[in-house]
Amino acid sequence: MFSLWDKQSFLLNNDVIIIGGGISGLSCASSILETYPEKKVIILERGQTPQGASTKNGGEHQGRILVGGGLDQEYINESSCDLVNSQVLQNKILNFLNECILLNTPYEIDFNWSGIMAISKKDITLIDYLIDKESENVFYVGRYCGRGMILSSIAGEEMRNLVYQGKSRL
């Protein structure tokens, strides 16, 4: 594709380069610029408009199925001890795909991820980010880009202490 931009100088004069202009990429860019307004951030998007998985928010990216350790659900249902073992959840998703969506159509999974995490030092509302001990093994951290996040008890406790200097938000 022809471009009028000098590709070397175009990419060299930035502090952060984000690949993908979907919901996740734009959210990351916005968060970085809110926190560090002096930073130069560039977003690279292959098309004229974002069309990837985060834009569709459906777990599919150009005909490829993405399976991971989190589900888009209502706020009240997002925390779940079942998510401790992401393989159990992935198996449930695969069964749902086979039985209800793809109806036993052959497919290949191109990408697996194991978790989602977001951190904010801004004063945020309790409904949006709730750090709460759900059980001995799980800390529920909250929502980011429409997804729930789960951390193990040790990682969750360390994260809470790091972000809030050990103070409980509850």
UniProtKB/TrEMBL annotation:
Keywords: Oxidoreductase
GO terms under cellular component: cytoplasm
InterPro entries in alphabetical order: FAD-dep_OxRdtase, FAD/NAD-bd_sf
A Pfam entry, by short name: DAO
Domain named FAD dependent oxidoreductase: residues: 15-59
One GO molecular-function entry: glycerol-3-phosphate dehydrogenase (quinone) activity
EC numbers on record: 1.1.5.3
Protein name: Oxidoreductase, putative
